[in-house]
Write a structure and sequence with these properties.
The chain has seven helices and no strands. With 194 residues, the chain is mainly α. It holds the Pfam family MFS_1.
């Protein structure tokens, strides 16, 4: 995986999340819940993310690409489940899952961003990364607004799930390509030394 693919995959994650999060409150209101329940749901999300980060941290160097894939797949599963939710307790369970996925995504994203840049020369790459992921977020909010006017919030959840799946696929494809390159390099090294 390289920096340009990291930018692409994480722009997709930003697009998927930006499409649904501004309208999530409408979903909770449709369940008949209050703003205080929204606050509790968001607290479950943030606290679970913080707690799982301590378990993930020692594994990050070795498994960051896998964590990105797992994060996108977990978020895809949550987005597919939300339209079927009928109770607030299930919302809290999904928030727990989403918090775990958020920790995997944020930590892996930062780890890989550091891996794919050079100390003392990271500014331009980080600026480029921030630009594209932020543009994706802005597009997502506008797109989500138009889609929710024409369709239902459930369709928005499904579309977001599809974009999360595309992000997982992009990371998986680049991880597979990296393994192929490493294998070829190892064969070259072996033949030169052997």
């Amino acid at each position: 995986m390289n920096l340009s693919w990291l930018i692409r995959s994480q722009s997709l994650v930003t697009l998927a999340s930006g499409m649904i999060y501004p309208y999530y409150l409408l979903f909770l209101k449709n369940l008949g819940n209050s703003y205080s329940k929204y606050g509790l749901a968001f607290a479950v999300f943030t606290i679970s993310s913080a707690l799982v980060s301590q378990w993930l941290a020692p594994r990050l160097d070795r498994y960051s690409q896998r964590m990105l894939i797992a994060s996108s797949m977990g978020m895809m599963a949550a987005m597919l489940a939300f339209p079927w939710v009928m109770s607030y307790s299930v919302v809290l369970l999904l928030q727990l899952l989403m918090g775990i996925c958020n920790a995997m995504q944020k930590m892996s994203e930062r780890q890989l961003l550091a891996d794919y840049t050079i100390p003392g020369g990271r500014g331009a790459a980080i600026g480029n990364y921030h630009f594209w992921t932020t543009v994706a977020s802005g597009i997502a909010v506008v797109l989500g607004g138009y889609l929710i006017d024409w369709l239902t919030i459930n369709v928005l959840f499904y579309f977001s799930a599809l974009v999360y799946a595309a992000s997982a696929w992009a990371v998986w494809r680049m991880q597979k390509a990296d393994r192929g390159k490493e294998s070829v390099q190892a064969q070259k090294t072996k033949s030169v030394n052997g």
